Amino acid sequence: MSIFITLIAALIVFSAVIAIHEFGHFAVAKLCGIQVNEFSIGMGPALWKKIYKGTQYSLRALPVGGYVALEGEESPESQQAEAARDEREAETASPIPPEQRTGIPLNDAPVWQRALVMAAGAFMNFVLGFVVLVILVAAQEGPITSRVIYSIEGSALCGQTGLQAGDEIVAVNGRRCFVANDILYELVRTEQYRARFTVKRDGQKVELPDVQFDTWQDEDGQTHMTLGFTVYGIKKTPLNVLKEAWNSTLYYGRIVFTSLADLVRGRESINNLSGPVGIVTAIGQAASYGWQDLLELLALITINLGVFNLLPFPALDGGKVVFLIIEGITGHAVPEKLQGTLTIAAFALLFGLMLFATYNDIIRLVTGVM
What we know:
Strand order of the largest sheet: 5-4-6-7
Shape: elongated
Strand content: 15-25%
Number of strands: 10
Mean pLDDT: 86
């Protein structure tokens, strides 16, 4: 039963994340008058398809993935669209007869419109994450957690080294805190259980260069930090819910950059990378805890996918945007051969990382360490 729940939950999460991403490309392409040959949910053989206003809409047998095929686009998505068609459709360059096409080829559109189309998928991932977080914040029990200190516990070390009741925590170790989780995330990453705080006190920003925290040890000898302070709650009004959801979106998005920076600097081991197996396992665990945990993981995945896709890497949407920016500045497109070479090399690197991460996932499953 647990395997069944995991598979269903994983399908829901992946389908939602991919469908909203592809819808972003589709919607902006339509708005810009670019010919969309196909918008497909799923991969493989078509279960249902219908041509409407110059676009074929398809539902395919494998409920993982999806794509948007744009006229004149040389991309993995368009190639997948061609491969997925049956033999009769593959005899033509497009499932849409010329007389039914309503748009122009992608490459005939202005550079700025093409850039918007490429960035729209990631943008819709952010929109999905924001909507999910609005639901979660609105549904949570109790008030919203603020960043304003209500009280310092007894003789807590953090109070002795700078923090005071009434302080609004603005930043920890130079990183701005959008939500209360930012504070916890930064403190987990601190060394020697001390951190540099920026707080707002009596309307003025105050720098606290060395706030220290009490620690305790468990039965296994592991050392843990004690916060030593509590914070105020914020009343859940519609405006506060929207504000908290927006700030949480920023919080989740920044985790990607922080994690990548930690990998580059060696603070995190590459062995901690997780691939599809690890993500599915995490989805199953979240689903077993309840719908709120599953939605929270959905928000994290879709926002992280949006950020990752905008990285200036040739195989990603962000890389395509960089090529278009260069074209817009110079007036000349980056040679297709160079784009193709860089994209193939980038895909090979990403595929290698995915294989390595999947190997890590399998090892963790076998050893029981997740």
